[in-house]
Amino acid sequence: MSQTALRHTLLTLLWVLSIAVFFRWWGTTLRSPGLLLWTLFYLALYLATAFTIYGRGIRTRHREVWRPAVLWTTLVLVVLGAHAVLPQIHLRGQAVQTVAFVSVMDVVFPCWIMVRVVGLLWEPILVRVSVLTLGPVIILSGMFAYMIPMPGASHAGPLPPLSPDQESLRDRLATHVHVLASEIGERNNRTYGALQRAATFVEDELAAVGYTVTPQYYDVGGRPFHNMEVVLPGVQRPDEIIVVGGHYDSAEGTPGANDNASGTAALLELARLLHQEQFARTIRFVAFVNEEPPYFNTEGMGSWQYAARAAERGERVVAMVSLETVGYFRTEPESQRYPPLFDLFYPDRGDFIAFVGNLASRSLVRRAIAVFRRTTRFPSQGVAAPPQVPGVTWSCHSAFWIHGFKAIMITDTAPFRYPHYHQLTDTVDRLDYERMARVVEGVAEVIRHLAGPVERSQAQSTQHGPRWHPNAGSTSSVREPEGLAPRYRRSMSASEAPRWR
What we know:
This protein is α/β, with parallel strands linked by helices. The chain has helices at residues 3-24, 32-54, 62-85, 99-121, 125-147, 164-184, 192-209, 257-274, 302-312, 362-375, 397-402, 433-451, 456-462, and strands spanning 88-91, 94-97, 214-220, 223-232, 237-247, 281-288, 316-324, 353-357, 380-384, 407-411.
């Protein structure tokens, strides 16, 4: 092999490595500055590669080098400028956030510029075609081998009958979803009063279990919104935190039974199931606000506000679990869809619960699904994929990725299965509460495992004293604005009322 061929081969491998790095650490590019970062990185690498090929002659290579660089830099700046001016547009009657176009540019730009580099490095047409054909095949094969295999085996066969405890859990889940989606209905900034009633309902339910609810207030557009947090402090490693969260708002124009009254109901029941137990690590149950458009993927998200505060305070959030649309299941063939290529590896029946993470959270995905499969007789699938894959970022967990925390989403896969996603028909009668109950019990086992058992000697020394302090481990700074809705559904005595009131 000549020196030129060797140099070109090494440069090609360097570019393949850079693409792998990009997919691995793409989380920061969910914000517009991330796109600028990657654009500058790849432009610098592109020009350095061109200089290696042409030397000082690069100055005269307008068509091969400079014109594409200027074209794509201009396109990136136009997309970022349009997003800054119009954060949301409407297409076919649906609100679409223009940050989606920023994310598309995140993916397209490095892939396109690598194609340009191959054109510079390999002039014979057959070599170009070979590199451009085999390169993606090798990269995709390696990625899928890394992303998809999971420990354990998914449950197959008939589901066992519900136990009496599971029947009670099923009924409670159905009641929660009914209150949120039927009695309250659409709950978001457009229906602000309903959003506040939903918040009060969640607060009441958590307080009734015995928790003290701590709000985290913040303003968006001059209006106050708030997350709600309750805490089970860890006994041995209280500084290590497990966040379990779900959003209680709904998209515009939908009662939001599955998205996300089902996730909120699951959050309430997990808090109830684990309330009397002790763990090594601290568990925080958090109901987030403003996950849906126009706030999704912006600093207006409740999960963004929460994760940003945790990062600012240097808190050790070792795992975050997001509960997103967990109530719809189908057993018919071809009832499940996937992003391109993923249907080659997963079943076509929508009867499973999915564990989803990014590449940085792969170990957390594998731990969680391994526990679920070991303890729960219910079908499950898992994936640790780059955030560019459609659906992977579609919930509260993505805000934790952006701020450097490992996080996963537990979901029925939402629009890849649910035909009523973000529709007026997302109603309580669409959900399968028996399967929801099985999933919630399994997720409770996952949370127990992540939080860790208390050593016997430590448990014995604390069993006669106060088990936990209600405000321990809280991130929140309480600032209660005026005009909040009255307490929902029942009046509480002073002794029952949450202490932050």
